[in-house]
Design a protein that fits this description.
The complex is a heterodimer of chains A (about 300) and B (about 230). Chain A is mostly helical. Helix content of chain A is about 70%, strand content about 0%. Chain A has eleven helices and two strands. In chain A, α3 crosses α8, α5 packs across α6 and α10 packs antiparallel against α11. With about 230 residues, chain B is α/β, with parallel strands linked by helices. Chain B has one domain: Rossmann fold, CATH 3.40.50.300. In chain B, α7 links the parallel β7 and β8. The chains are: A mainly alpha (about 300), B alpha/beta (about 230). The interface between A and B is medium-sized, with 22 and 29 residues.
Protein backbone atom coordinates (compact mmCIF):
# COMPACT_ATOMS: atom_id res chain seq x y z
CA UNK A 1 0.00 0.00 0.00
CA UNK A 2 1.32 3.42 -1.03
CA UNK A 3 -0.66 6.67 -0.51
CA UNK A 4 -3.55 4.41 0.53
CA UNK A 5 -3.79 2.72 -2.90
CA UNK A 6 -3.27 -0.97 -3.59
CA UNK A 7 -0.75 -2.00 -6.24
CA UNK A 8 -3.53 -2.93 -8.65
CA UNK A 9 -5.04 0.53 -8.26
CA UNK A 10 -1.64 2.14 -8.67
CA UNK A 11 -1.10 0.26 -11.93
CA UNK A 12 -4.42 1.50 -13.27
CA UNK A 13 -3.75 5.04 -12.11
CA UNK A 14 -0.35 5.05 -13.77
CA UNK A 15 -1.85 3.67 -16.99
CA UNK A 16 -4.72 6.16 -17.09
CA UNK A 17 -2.67 9.15 -16.03
CA UNK A 18 -0.08 7.98 -18.51
CA UNK A 19 -2.72 8.07 -21.18
CA UNK A 20 -3.92 11.52 -20.09
CA UNK A 21 -0.27 12.49 -20.30
CA UNK A 22 -0.15 11.14 -23.83
CA UNK A 23 -2.94 13.48 -24.89
CA UNK A 24 -1.13 16.40 -23.27
CA UNK A 25 1.99 15.09 -24.99
CA UNK A 26 0.18 15.25 -28.33
CA UNK A 27 -0.74 18.89 -27.88
CA UNK A 28 2.80 19.68 -26.69
CA UNK A 29 4.32 17.89 -29.64
CA UNK A 30 2.12 19.72 -32.13
CA UNK A 31 2.83 23.06 -30.47
CA UNK A 32 6.51 22.29 -30.11
CA UNK A 33 6.94 21.00 -33.66
CA UNK A 34 5.68 24.32 -34.97
CA UNK A 35 7.91 26.20 -32.57
CA UNK A 36 10.87 23.91 -33.27
CA UNK A 37 10.57 24.89 -36.91
CA UNK A 38 10.21 28.60 -36.13
CA UNK A 39 12.55 28.90 -33.13
CA UNK A 40 14.86 25.93 -33.63
CA UNK A 41 15.38 26.29 -37.35
CA UNK A 42 14.73 30.00 -37.95
CA UNK A 43 15.83 31.42 -34.59
CA UNK A 44 12.69 33.53 -34.20
CA UNK A 45 11.31 33.72 -30.66
CA UNK A 46 7.63 33.65 -31.44
CA UNK A 47 5.71 34.62 -28.30
CA UNK A 48 2.48 34.67 -30.32
CA UNK A 49 2.72 30.93 -31.02
CA UNK A 50 0.03 30.20 -28.43
CA UNK A 51 -2.33 32.62 -30.14
CA UNK A 52 -1.80 30.81 -33.44
CA UNK A 53 -2.85 27.67 -31.62
CA UNK A 54 -5.95 29.39 -30.24
CA UNK A 55 -6.78 30.59 -33.74
CA UNK A 56 -6.89 26.92 -34.73
CA UNK A 57 -9.08 26.18 -31.70
CA UNK A 58 -11.55 28.94 -32.62
CA UNK A 59 -11.65 27.73 -36.21
CA UNK A 60 -12.52 24.27 -34.88
CA UNK A 61 -15.20 25.81 -32.65
CA UNK A 62 -16.67 27.72 -35.60
CA UNK A 63 -16.64 24.58 -37.71
CA UNK A 64 -18.48 22.61 -35.07
CA UNK A 65 -21.20 25.27 -34.96
CA UNK A 66 -21.44 25.78 -38.70
CA UNK A 67 -21.75 22.05 -39.27
CA UNK A 68 -24.46 21.75 -36.61
CA UNK A 69 -26.39 24.62 -38.16
CA UNK A 70 -25.96 23.99 -41.89
CA UNK A 71 -24.55 20.51 -42.50
CA UNK A 72 -25.85 18.30 -39.69
CA UNK A 73 -25.55 15.26 -41.97
CA UNK A 74 -21.79 15.68 -42.16
CA UNK A 75 -21.33 16.52 -38.50
CA UNK A 76 -19.64 13.18 -37.88
CA UNK A 77 -16.60 14.20 -39.91
CA UNK A 78 -16.48 17.91 -39.12
CA UNK A 79 -13.35 17.52 -37.00
CA UNK A 80 -11.23 16.51 -39.99
CA UNK A 81 -12.46 19.48 -42.01
CA UNK A 82 -11.75 21.67 -38.99
CA UNK A 83 -8.17 20.42 -38.77
CA UNK A 84 -7.54 21.35 -42.41
CA UNK A 85 -9.17 24.75 -42.02
CA UNK A 86 -7.29 25.39 -38.78
CA UNK A 87 -4.03 24.69 -40.59
CA UNK A 88 -5.01 26.92 -43.50
CA UNK A 89 -6.09 29.82 -41.27
CA UNK A 90 -2.97 29.73 -39.08
CA UNK A 91 -0.76 29.26 -42.17
CA UNK A 92 -2.31 32.31 -43.86
CA UNK A 93 -1.98 34.44 -40.73
CA UNK A 94 1.61 33.22 -40.40
CA UNK A 95 2.46 34.35 -43.94
CA UNK A 96 0.92 37.74 -43.24
CA UNK A 97 2.79 38.19 -39.96
CA UNK A 98 6.10 37.13 -41.52
CA UNK A 99 5.62 39.59 -44.38
CA UNK A 100 4.48 42.47 -42.20
CA UNK A 101 6.75 42.02 -39.19
CA UNK A 102 9.13 39.10 -38.77
CA UNK A 103 11.17 39.55 -41.95
CA UNK A 104 12.39 42.93 -40.70
CA UNK A 105 13.65 41.37 -37.48
CA UNK A 106 15.64 38.28 -38.49
CA UNK A 107 18.97 39.21 -37.00
CA UNK A 108 17.43 40.70 -33.84
CA UNK A 109 16.07 37.89 -31.63
CA UNK A 110 15.22 40.15 -28.68
CA UNK A 111 13.20 42.44 -30.89
CA UNK A 112 11.24 39.51 -32.27
CA UNK A 113 10.46 38.52 -28.69
CA UNK A 114 8.96 41.94 -27.92
CA UNK A 115 7.25 42.34 -31.27
CA UNK A 116 5.62 38.91 -31.19
CA UNK A 117 4.59 39.43 -27.57
CA UNK A 118 2.85 42.60 -28.69
CA UNK A 119 1.28 40.63 -31.51
CA UNK A 120 0.02 38.05 -29.01
CA UNK A 121 -1.72 40.81 -27.00
CA UNK A 122 -3.29 42.20 -30.17
CA UNK A 123 -4.54 38.76 -31.18
CA UNK A 124 -5.92 38.07 -27.70
CA UNK A 125 -7.93 41.27 -27.77
CA UNK A 126 -9.08 40.47 -31.28
CA UNK A 127 -10.39 37.08 -30.12
CA UNK A 128 -12.03 38.74 -27.13
CA UNK A 129 -13.79 41.25 -29.37
CA UNK A 130 -14.94 38.66 -31.86
CA UNK A 131 -15.71 35.61 -29.75
CA UNK A 132 -16.22 37.19 -26.33
CA UNK A 133 -14.19 36.69 -23.18
CA UNK A 134 -16.11 33.55 -22.10
CA UNK A 135 -14.65 30.16 -22.66
CA UNK A 136 -16.15 28.15 -25.48
CA UNK A 137 -16.16 24.43 -26.09
CA UNK A 138 -16.84 22.30 -29.12
CA UNK A 139 -19.58 19.76 -29.69
CA UNK A 140 -18.30 16.28 -30.41
CA UNK A 141 -20.05 13.83 -32.73
CA UNK A 142 -21.31 10.71 -30.98
CA UNK A 143 -18.62 8.39 -32.26
CA UNK A 144 -15.87 10.54 -30.77
CA UNK A 145 -17.40 10.53 -27.30
CA UNK A 146 -17.12 7.87 -24.69
CA UNK A 147 -14.19 5.67 -24.04
CA UNK A 148 -12.73 2.29 -24.69
CA UNK A 149 -12.75 -0.08 -21.74
CA UNK A 150 -9.52 -1.99 -21.63
CA UNK A 151 -9.95 -3.57 -18.19
CA UNK A 152 -12.34 -2.96 -15.30
CA UNK A 153 -10.24 -0.10 -14.00
CA UNK A 154 -8.56 1.22 -17.15
CA UNK A 155 -10.41 3.12 -19.84
CA UNK A 156 -9.13 5.39 -22.56
CA UNK A 157 -11.15 8.19 -24.22
CA UNK A 158 -11.72 7.85 -27.96
CA UNK A 159 -11.10 11.49 -28.80
CA UNK A 160 -7.71 11.11 -27.09
CA UNK A 161 -6.85 8.24 -29.41
CA UNK A 162 -7.88 10.41 -32.35
CA UNK A 163 -5.68 13.29 -31.25
CA UNK A 164 -2.76 10.92 -30.85
CA UNK A 165 -3.30 9.53 -34.32
CA UNK A 166 -3.39 13.03 -35.72
CA UNK A 167 -0.18 13.93 -33.90
CA UNK A 168 1.58 10.86 -35.25
CA UNK A 169 0.61 11.75 -38.82
CA UNK A 170 1.69 15.39 -38.46
CA UNK A 171 4.98 14.42 -36.80
CA UNK A 172 5.86 12.01 -39.59
CA UNK A 173 4.80 14.65 -42.10
CA UNK A 174 7.04 17.31 -40.57
CA UNK A 175 9.94 14.88 -40.38
CA UNK A 176 9.60 13.96 -44.06
CA UNK A 177 9.19 17.61 -45.00
CA UNK A 178 12.36 18.72 -43.24
CA UNK A 179 14.68 15.76 -43.70
CA UNK A 180 13.53 14.05 -46.87
CA UNK A 181 12.10 16.67 -49.21
CA UNK A 182 13.77 19.21 -51.47
CA UNK A 183 11.84 21.89 -49.67
CA UNK A 184 13.41 20.72 -46.40
CA UNK A 185 16.87 21.02 -47.95
CA UNK A 186 16.09 24.62 -48.78
CA UNK A 187 14.84 25.26 -45.24
CA UNK A 188 17.91 23.71 -43.61
CA UNK A 189 20.30 25.50 -45.97
CA UNK A 190 18.71 28.86 -45.21
CA UNK A 191 18.71 28.22 -41.46
CA UNK A 192 22.35 27.12 -41.38
CA UNK A 193 23.68 30.00 -43.45
CA UNK A 194 21.27 32.52 -44.90
CA UNK A 195 23.87 34.41 -46.97
CA UNK A 196 25.37 31.28 -48.45
CA UNK A 197 21.96 29.78 -49.22
CA UNK A 198 21.23 32.83 -51.35
CA UNK A 199 24.63 32.41 -52.99
CA UNK A 200 23.73 28.90 -54.18
CA UNK A 201 20.56 30.25 -55.72
CA UNK A 202 17.90 29.80 -53.03
CA UNK A 203 15.27 32.53 -52.67
CA UNK A 204 15.73 32.91 -48.93
CA UNK A 205 12.90 35.38 -48.34
CA UNK A 206 10.37 33.04 -49.89
CA UNK A 207 11.71 30.08 -47.91
CA UNK A 208 11.53 32.09 -44.68
CA UNK A 209 7.95 33.10 -45.34
CA UNK A 210 6.66 29.63 -46.14
CA UNK A 211 8.61 28.03 -43.28
CA UNK A 212 7.16 30.48 -40.79
CA UNK A 213 3.72 29.84 -42.25
CA UNK A 214 4.09 26.08 -41.91
CA UNK A 215 5.23 26.43 -38.28
CA UNK A 216 2.16 28.54 -37.53
CA UNK A 217 -0.08 26.14 -39.46
CA UNK A 218 1.06 23.25 -37.27
CA UNK A 219 0.22 25.38 -34.23
CA UNK A 220 -3.26 25.77 -35.74
CA UNK A 221 -3.58 21.97 -35.88
CA UNK A 222 -2.44 21.88 -32.26
CA UNK A 223 -5.38 24.21 -31.57
CA UNK A 224 -7.79 21.71 -33.09
CA UNK A 225 -6.35 19.01 -30.86
CA UNK A 226 -6.47 21.38 -27.91
CA UNK A 227 -10.28 21.64 -28.12
CA UNK A 228 -10.34 17.96 -27.08
CA UNK A 229 -8.65 18.55 -23.74
CA UNK A 230 -9.52 22.10 -22.75
CA UNK A 231 -11.98 24.86 -23.40
CA UNK A 232 -10.99 27.66 -25.71
CA UNK A 233 -10.61 31.20 -24.40
CA UNK A 234 -8.73 34.23 -25.75
CA UNK A 235 -5.90 33.76 -23.26
CA UNK A 236 -5.68 29.97 -23.19
CA UNK A 237 -2.68 30.06 -25.56
CA UNK A 238 -0.63 31.99 -23.05
CA UNK A 239 -0.71 29.08 -20.63
CA UNK A 240 0.98 26.90 -23.20
CA UNK A 241 3.65 29.14 -24.67
CA UNK A 242 6.10 28.83 -21.76
CA UNK A 243 5.66 25.06 -21.61
CA UNK A 244 6.23 24.87 -25.33
CA UNK A 245 9.45 26.86 -25.19
CA UNK A 246 10.48 24.61 -22.33
CA UNK A 247 9.89 21.55 -24.49
CA UNK A 248 11.85 22.97 -27.43
CA UNK A 249 14.81 24.18 -25.36
CA UNK A 250 14.91 21.02 -23.28
CA UNK A 251 14.90 18.86 -26.39
CA UNK A 252 17.75 20.70 -28.09
CA UNK A 253 16.67 23.57 -30.29
CA UNK A 254 17.57 22.15 -33.68
CA UNK A 255 16.53 18.54 -33.18
CA UNK A 256 13.05 17.25 -33.97
CA UNK A 257 13.67 13.93 -32.25
CA UNK A 258 14.78 15.81 -29.14
CA UNK A 259 11.60 17.87 -29.25
CA UNK A 260 9.48 14.73 -29.25
CA UNK A 261 11.47 13.05 -26.47
CA UNK A 262 11.34 16.14 -24.31
CA UNK A 263 7.59 16.67 -24.90
CA UNK A 264 7.06 13.07 -23.86
CA UNK A 265 9.09 13.25 -20.66
CA UNK A 266 7.70 16.62 -19.59
CA UNK A 267 4.05 15.76 -20.23
CA UNK A 268 4.30 12.32 -18.57
CA UNK A 269 6.04 13.70 -15.50
CA UNK A 270 3.49 16.45 -15.21
CA UNK A 271 0.45 14.26 -15.70
CA UNK A 272 1.57 11.53 -13.29
CA UNK A 273 2.63 13.88 -10.51
CA UNK A 274 -0.55 15.93 -10.97
CA UNK A 275 -2.64 13.00 -9.80
CA UNK A 276 -0.80 12.54 -6.51
CA UNK A 277 0.00 16.17 -5.69
CA UNK A 278 -1.52 19.37 -7.08
CA UNK A 279 -1.18 20.88 -10.56
CA UNK A 280 1.13 23.64 -9.41
CA UNK A 281 3.32 21.22 -7.45
CA UNK A 282 3.58 19.10 -10.60
CA UNK A 283 4.72 22.16 -12.52
CA UNK A 284 7.29 23.07 -9.88
CA UNK A 285 8.77 19.57 -9.83
CA UNK A 286 8.86 19.38 -13.64
CA UNK A 287 10.56 22.75 -13.87
CA UNK A 288 13.11 21.81 -11.22
CA UNK A 289 13.94 18.60 -13.06
CA UNK A 290 14.29 20.45 -16.37
CA UNK A 291 16.49 23.16 -14.83
CA UNK A 292 18.66 20.49 -13.26
CA UNK A 293 19.09 18.57 -16.50
CA UNK A 294 19.74 21.73 -18.51
CA UNK A 295 22.52 22.65 -16.10
CA UNK A 296 24.19 19.35 -16.94
CA UNK A 297 23.34 19.49 -20.65
CA UNK A 298 22.94 23.14 -21.66
CA UNK A 299 22.39 22.27 -25.34
CA UNK A 300 19.36 20.13 -24.53
CA UNK A 301 18.75 16.40 -24.73
CA UNK A 302 19.75 15.79 -28.34
CA UNK A 303 22.60 17.59 -30.00
CA UNK A 304 24.14 17.15 -33.42
CA UNK A 305 27.85 16.57 -33.02
CA UNK A 306 29.42 18.46 -35.87
CA UNK A 307 32.28 20.89 -36.38
CA UNK A 308 31.01 24.40 -36.96
CA UNK B 1 31.93 37.32 -69.79
CA UNK B 2 32.08 39.33 -66.58
CA UNK B 3 32.36 43.09 -66.95
CA UNK B 4 32.65 45.38 -63.96
CA UNK B 5 32.64 49.13 -64.57
CA UNK B 6 33.24 51.92 -62.07
CA UNK B 7 32.13 49.71 -59.17
CA UNK B 8 31.88 51.58 -55.87
CA UNK B 9 31.19 49.87 -52.56
CA UNK B 10 30.86 51.56 -49.18
CA UNK B 11 30.38 50.32 -45.65
CA UNK B 12 28.46 53.21 -44.11
CA UNK B 13 30.40 56.38 -44.90
CA UNK B 14 33.71 54.75 -45.74
CA UNK B 15 34.19 53.84 -49.36
CA UNK B 16 36.04 50.55 -49.77
CA UNK B 17 36.11 50.04 -53.54
CA UNK B 18 36.70 53.13 -55.66
CA UNK B 19 35.48 53.11 -59.28
CA UNK B 20 36.86 49.66 -59.87
CA UNK B 21 37.03 48.36 -63.46
CA UNK B 22 37.53 44.69 -64.18
CA UNK B 23 36.82 42.28 -67.00
CA UNK B 24 37.05 38.52 -67.21
CA UNK B 25 36.85 37.03 -70.70
CA UNK B 26 35.12 33.76 -71.52
CA UNK B 27 37.28 30.78 -70.58
CA UNK B 28 39.78 32.97 -68.77
CA UNK B 29 41.20 32.58 -65.26
CA UNK B 30 41.96 35.88 -63.55
CA UNK B 31 43.61 36.16 -60.15
CA UNK B 32 43.13 39.21 -57.94
CA UNK B 33 46.07 39.54 -55.58
CA UNK B 34 46.27 41.74 -52.55
CA UNK B 35 47.04 41.90 -48.87
CA UNK B 36 44.45 41.60 -46.13
CA UNK B 37 41.99 44.49 -46.02
CA UNK B 38 42.59 45.68 -49.56
CA UNK B 39 39.09 44.85 -50.76
CA UNK B 40 39.30 41.36 -52.26
CA UNK B 41 36.46 39.85 -50.28
CA UNK B 42 34.36 43.01 -50.59
CA UNK B 43 34.80 42.82 -54.36
CA UNK B 44 33.60 39.20 -54.38
CA UNK B 45 30.63 39.98 -52.16
CA UNK B 46 29.69 42.97 -54.29
CA UNK B 47 29.80 40.81 -57.43
CA UNK B 48 27.42 38.34 -55.72
CA UNK B 49 25.13 41.08 -54.46
CA UNK B 50 25.80 40.19 -50.83
CA UNK B 51 26.93 43.76 -50.19
CA UNK B 52 25.18 46.42 -52.27
CA UNK B 53 27.05 48.46 -54.85
CA UNK B 54 27.03 52.20 -54.19
CA UNK B 55 27.69 52.92 -57.87
CA UNK B 56 28.84 51.39 -61.13
CA UNK B 57 27.64 48.31 -62.96
CA UNK B 58 28.23 44.57 -62.99
CA UNK B 59 27.37 42.78 -66.22
CA UNK B 60 27.32 39.06 -66.89
CA UNK B 61 27.49 37.98 -70.54
CA UNK B 62 26.44 41.49 -71.54
CA UNK B 63 23.35 41.61 -69.27
CA UNK B 64 23.34 44.07 -66.38
CA UNK B 65 22.92 42.23 -63.06
CA UNK B 66 23.75 45.10 -60.69
CA UNK B 67 20.22 45.39 -59.35
CA UNK B 68 19.46 41.68 -59.02
CA UNK B 69 19.28 39.93 -55.63
CA UNK B 70 21.88 37.24 -54.98
CA UNK B 71 19.78 34.19 -55.84
CA UNK B 72 18.80 35.62 -59.22
CA UNK B 73 22.43 36.36 -60.04
CA UNK B 74 23.14 32.68 -59.39
CA UNK B 75 20.37 31.74 -61.82
CA UNK B 76 22.01 34.01 -64.44
CA UNK B 77 25.23 32.02 -64.13
CA UNK B 78 27.52 33.36 -61.42
CA UNK B 79 28.66 31.06 -58.60
CA UNK B 80 30.55 31.74 -55.41
CA UNK B 81 33.01 29.83 -53.24
CA UNK B 82 33.41 32.08 -50.21
CA UNK B 83 36.37 32.57 -47.95
CA UNK B 84 36.15 30.04 -45.13
CA UNK B 85 34.15 27.73 -47.44
CA UNK B 86 30.84 28.14 -45.59
CA UNK B 87 29.41 24.73 -46.39
CA UNK B 88 26.22 23.80 -44.54
CA UNK B 89 27.74 21.95 -41.56
CA UNK B 90 24.74 19.88 -40.44
CA UNK B 91 23.82 18.68 -43.93
CA UNK B 92 25.41 15.69 -45.61
CA UNK B 93 27.90 16.09 -48.44
CA UNK B 94 25.31 14.96 -51.00
CA UNK B 95 22.71 17.37 -49.60
CA UNK B 96 25.22 20.21 -49.66
CA UNK B 97 25.82 19.66 -53.36
CA UNK B 98 22.10 19.27 -54.03
CA UNK B 99 21.37 22.74 -52.62
CA UNK B 100 23.05 24.04 -55.76
CA UNK B 101 20.63 22.16 -58.03
CA UNK B 102 17.51 24.16 -57.22
CA UNK B 103 18.24 27.03 -59.63
CA UNK B 104 18.05 24.81 -62.69
CA UNK B 105 15.98 21.92 -61.34
CA UNK B 106 17.07 18.30 -61.10
CA UNK B 107 17.21 16.12 -58.02
CA UNK B 108 20.54 14.31 -58.33
CA UNK B 109 23.99 15.83 -58.57
CA UNK B 110 25.56 15.24 -61.99
CA UNK B 111 28.21 12.51 -62.00
CA UNK B 112 31.03 14.72 -63.26
CA UNK B 113 31.07 16.55 -59.92
CA UNK B 114 31.95 13.32 -58.15
CA UNK B 115 34.47 12.51 -60.90
CA UNK B 116 36.17 15.84 -60.29
CA UNK B 117 36.19 15.28 -56.54
CA UNK B 118 36.25 11.51 -55.88
CA UNK B 119 36.71 12.12 -52.16
CA UNK B 120 33.20 13.61 -52.03
CA UNK B 121 31.74 10.38 -53.37
CA UNK B 122 33.42 8.47 -50.54
CA UNK B 123 32.11 10.94 -47.97
CA UNK B 124 28.69 11.27 -49.56
CA UNK B 125 26.62 10.66 -46.46
CA UNK B 126 28.94 12.32 -43.92
CA UNK B 127 27.96 15.67 -42.52
CA UNK B 128 29.73 18.58 -44.20
CA UNK B 129 30.91 19.94 -40.88
CA UNK B 130 32.88 16.77 -40.16
CA UNK B 131 35.07 17.06 -43.27
CA UNK B 132 38.63 18.39 -43.22
CA UNK B 133 39.38 21.87 -44.52
CA UNK B 134 40.58 20.64 -47.90
CA UNK B 135 37.57 18.37 -48.32
CA UNK B 136 35.24 21.21 -47.37
CA UNK B 137 36.92 23.37 -49.99
CA UNK B 138 36.25 20.74 -52.65
CA UNK B 139 32.67 20.46 -51.42
CA UNK B 140 32.19 24.24 -51.65
CA UNK B 141 33.50 24.18 -55.25
CA UNK B 142 31.28 21.21 -56.17
CA UNK B 143 28.28 22.96 -54.67
CA UNK B 144 29.05 26.09 -56.69
CA UNK B 145 29.49 24.05 -59.89
CA UNK B 146 26.12 22.36 -59.32
CA UNK B 147 24.47 25.69 -60.15
CA UNK B 148 25.93 25.39 -63.69
CA UNK B 149 27.75 28.72 -63.63
CA UNK B 150 29.34 30.66 -66.47
CA UNK B 151 31.56 32.54 -64.05
CA UNK B 152 33.01 31.01 -60.89
CA UNK B 153 34.20 33.30 -58.08
CA UNK B 154 36.64 31.87 -55.53
CA UNK B 155 37.63 33.88 -52.48
CA UNK B 156 41.04 32.79 -51.13
CA UNK B 157 40.57 29.09 -51.84
CA UNK B 158 44.00 28.16 -50.48
CA UNK B 159 43.47 29.63 -47.02
CA UNK B 160 44.16 27.05 -44.32
CA UNK B 161 44.82 24.18 -46.72
CA UNK B 162 47.95 22.03 -46.86
CA UNK B 163 50.38 22.57 -49.79
CA UNK B 164 49.88 19.21 -51.53
CA UNK B 165 46.12 19.79 -51.66
CA UNK B 166 46.71 23.32 -53.00
CA UNK B 167 48.53 21.86 -56.01
CA UNK B 168 45.64 19.44 -56.61
CA UNK B 169 43.22 22.33 -56.34
CA UNK B 170 45.06 24.32 -59.00
CA UNK B 171 45.02 21.32 -61.33
CA UNK B 172 41.30 20.75 -60.72
CA UNK B 173 40.40 24.37 -61.34
CA UNK B 174 42.26 24.38 -64.65
CA UNK B 175 40.53 21.14 -65.57
CA UNK B 176 37.12 22.62 -64.74
CA UNK B 177 37.88 25.62 -66.94
CA UNK B 178 39.01 23.42 -69.85
CA UNK B 179 36.15 20.92 -69.59
CA UNK B 180 33.24 23.15 -68.65
CA UNK B 181 34.45 26.24 -70.48
CA UNK B 182 33.78 28.70 -67.71
CA UNK B 183 35.51 31.84 -66.52
CA UNK B 184 37.12 31.94 -63.11
CA UNK B 185 37.89 34.94 -60.92
CA UNK B 186 39.99 33.99 -57.93
CA UNK B 187 41.26 36.22 -55.14
CA UNK B 188 44.53 35.09 -53.62
CA UNK B 189 47.44 35.97 -51.38
CA UNK B 190 49.61 32.99 -52.36
CA UNK B 191 51.57 34.06 -55.44
CA UNK B 192 52.70 30.56 -56.44
CA UNK B 193 49.08 29.35 -56.58
CA UNK B 194 48.02 32.36 -58.65
CA UNK B 195 50.91 31.83 -61.06
CA UNK B 196 49.93 28.19 -61.30
CA UNK B 197 46.38 28.80 -62.51
CA UNK B 198 45.87 32.38 -63.69
CA UNK B 199 46.04 33.67 -67.26
CA UNK B 200 46.14 37.18 -65.94
CA UNK B 201 47.03 38.65 -62.55
CA UNK B 202 45.59 41.85 -61.08
CA UNK B 203 46.79 43.52 -57.92
CA UNK B 204 44.26 45.30 -55.74
CA UNK B 205 45.38 47.86 -53.18
CA UNK B 206 43.14 50.09 -51.08
CA UNK B 207 40.16 49.35 -53.27
CA UNK B 208 41.84 50.11 -56.60
CA UNK B 209 43.43 47.88 -59.22
CA UNK B 210 47.02 49.13 -59.21
CA UNK B 211 48.77 46.59 -61.41
CA UNK B 212 47.86 44.19 -64.17
CA UNK B 213 49.89 41.64 -66.12
CA UNK B 214 49.37 38.61 -68.30
CA UNK B 215 51.06 35.63 -66.68
CA UNK B 216 53.64 35.33 -69.45
CA UNK B 217 54.78 38.92 -68.93
CA UNK B 218 54.41 38.94 -65.15
CA UNK B 219 56.99 40.81 -63.12
CA UNK B 220 57.02 38.42 -60.18
CA UNK B 221 59.19 40.58 -57.99
CA UNK B 222 56.92 43.56 -58.42
CA UNK B 223 53.76 41.65 -57.51
CA UNK B 224 55.54 40.09 -54.56
CA UNK B 225 56.38 43.58 -53.34
CA UNK B 226 52.69 44.47 -53.32
CA UNK B 227 51.95 41.39 -51.26
CA UNK B 228 54.68 41.77 -48.67
CA UNK B 229 53.67 43.36 -45.43
Amino acid sequence: MIFGYSFGDLGSILAMQGFAGLILFSVYVLMALGLAVIFGQMGVINMAHGEFMILGAYVTYLCSHLFTAYLPGLFAIYFFVAVLLAFAAAFALGLLVEWAMIRHLYRRPLDTLLATWGLSLVLQQLYRSIFGAREVGVELPDWMMGSQHLTDTIEVPINGLLVMGLTTIITIGVFLLIYRSNWGKRIRAVMQNRTMAAAVGIDTEFVDRVTFGVGCGIAGVAGSAFTMIGSTSPTAGQLYIVDTFLVVVFGGAASLLGTIASAFSISQTQSTIEFFLSGSMAKVLTLLAVVGILMLRPQGLFVLKVRR
Amino acid sequence: MLDVAKLKVSYGQSEVLHDLDLAVAANEIVAVMGRNGMGKTTLMKALMGIVPAAGGTVALGGADITALPTYQRVARGIAYVPQGRMIFPAMTVAENIETGLFVHGGARAPDYLYELFPVLLEMKSRRGGNLSGGQQQQLAIARALATQPKVLLLDEPTEGIQPSIIRDLARTLRRIRDERGLSILVSEQVLSFALDIADRVLVIENGRIVHEDARAALDEAKVARYLSV
